[in-house]
Amino acid sequence: MSNGTTSSPIVLALDDSLVIHQMIKRALEPGYQVITAANAVDALSIIYHQRISVLLLDVQMPDVNGLEFCRTVRSLPQFQHLPVIMVTSQDSPFDRVKGHLAGATEYLIKPFDAEQLREAVRKFIGS
């Protein structure tokens, strides 16, 4: 990656659906570098080893749900200001409150369209 040019901002998408991974990549590449993870352990490892600009986070996952993962990330001082966008099909006002209480910066409802996702990410990266 060190070809002398500035690299694209990195977006990490944590979702257990490979279909969602592909939708996110199609929506955000080539403007952003998209890294995907299917579970919380992989995502935490990526966060520690890459400079993530935005974290996209599914709420419903088999191992650690997105709310728990968001709280974990927020408990680590170096990630307290990392923008976290919940990407979920759970759309009740109570779900939104739970997301924000867990530390989510933004809440995006599935199914989303590519422009909605780009707009949400652009808000935090400003490109």
TrEMBL record:
PROSITE patterns according to UniProt: RESPONSE_REGULATORY (PS50110)
Residue stretches making up the Response regulatory domain: 10-125
Domain of life assignment: Bacteria
Signal sequence, renumbered to the chain: none
InterPro entries, per database record: Bact_response_regulator, CheY-like_superfamily, Sig_transdc_resp-reg_receiver
Keywords: Phosphoprotein
Name of the protein in its database record: Response regulator
Modification sites for 4-aspartylphosphate: 58
